[in-house]
Amino acid sequence: MITKIKQIAVDKLSNTMRMYSETRFNFERLKLVDKEEAINNLDRAFEAKLEAFHSLYDVTKSDFNYFEHADTALLILIRNAIHHRDHDLFISWNKEMLLNGGLERNNGAEFLLTSNRVCDKPPVMQYYYKLEDVFFRLDKSLGSPFLENRMRTQQKEDLLKMLDEQLKFKDIVDYAKSERYPIKQIYLNLIPIFTSAVVKVFTELKSKGLRFEGYDAKVYEEPFTNELSVDYSVIDYKPLRVLV
After folding, report:
1. Start-to-end CA span in the chain (Å)
2. What percent of the chain lies above the pLDDT cut of 90?
3. CA atoms of 17 and 195, how far apart (whole Å)
4. Strand order of the sheet with strand 128-130?
5. Sign of CA dihedral 151, 157, 158, 160
6. For residues 44 and 40, what is the distance between their CA atoms, to the nearest angstrom?
7. Cα of 32 vs its chain's centroid, Å
8. Which of 9, 88, 139, 241 lies in disulfide reach of 135, CB 3.0 to 4.6 Å?
9. Full-model pTM
10. Residue 189 and residue 204: Cα distance in Å, rounded?
11. Tell me: the pLDDT tens digits for 161-195?
12. Residue 100's pLDDT is what?
């Protein structure tokens, strides 16, 4: 029974990853017809991936320590923040800029979009959240009213340290400061981080003998256990100035 529950969770996550890819594929076309629907569809599809990842965490935390790895821990942090939504953090770049006068409000400002390499290449897909929002959930020195309250102080400090060391958040902040970007204008691509997190979990579950059952699970098994990799030592920085 326990094995079957884990297999269902793996297939559910794989299914949401496929649905996100399909939604992203249709994004530009739909945006021409109904911009708000296109953006909301993509946001909900990404949030569905986070929910499915958390569901997998719920049933496999005895098989894999999600909080020993910065990428898997970060996904859980963001999922919880969005799931319990008692703040206005973690608004996607698309929604922030393309709806409710975002472009006009930020006219003239230059933003820094950051991303990691997938298989030594820039990722095909991009989905950005503001980097500062992560710090607002974890760093008490910022005086944020939106601190994560389900984690102990030491857990938050440990996760901040892991993010700096493993995901190179400190390198990103240092680079942004050197180029005079305010931290509120740094955006982080979550797709490589999501990819590396799933690679870690799927690979561990497979090594412990879990069979991937279901169409989507079988499709994603090979790439996420034997093909994909993310290099956090390489950070791509893309300046983007808003002009309307």
Report:
1. 57
2. 97
3. 10
4. 128-130, 186-189, 110-118, 230-241
5. positive
6. 6
7. 26
8. 139
9. 0.97
10. 24
11. 999 999 999 999 999 999 999 999 999 999 999 99
12. 87
Neighbours of 131 (CB within 10 A): 21
Single-letter code of the amino acid located at 98: L
Q: Which helix (H) or strand (E) holds 175?
A: helix 169-178
Asked if residue 17 has pLDDT above 90, the reply is yes
The answer to whether 228 and 117 are in contact (CB under 8 A) is: no
Q: Share the mean pLDDT of the chain.
A: 97
Cα–Cα distance measured from residue 36 to residue 19, given in angstroms and rounded to the nearest whole number: 18
DSSP state of 99: S
Would you state the structure tokens that stand for residue 228, as one six-digit string? 């994909």
Contact 17, 197 (CB under 8 A): no
pLDDT of residue 123: 86
The tokens describing 192, both together, are: 């490589």
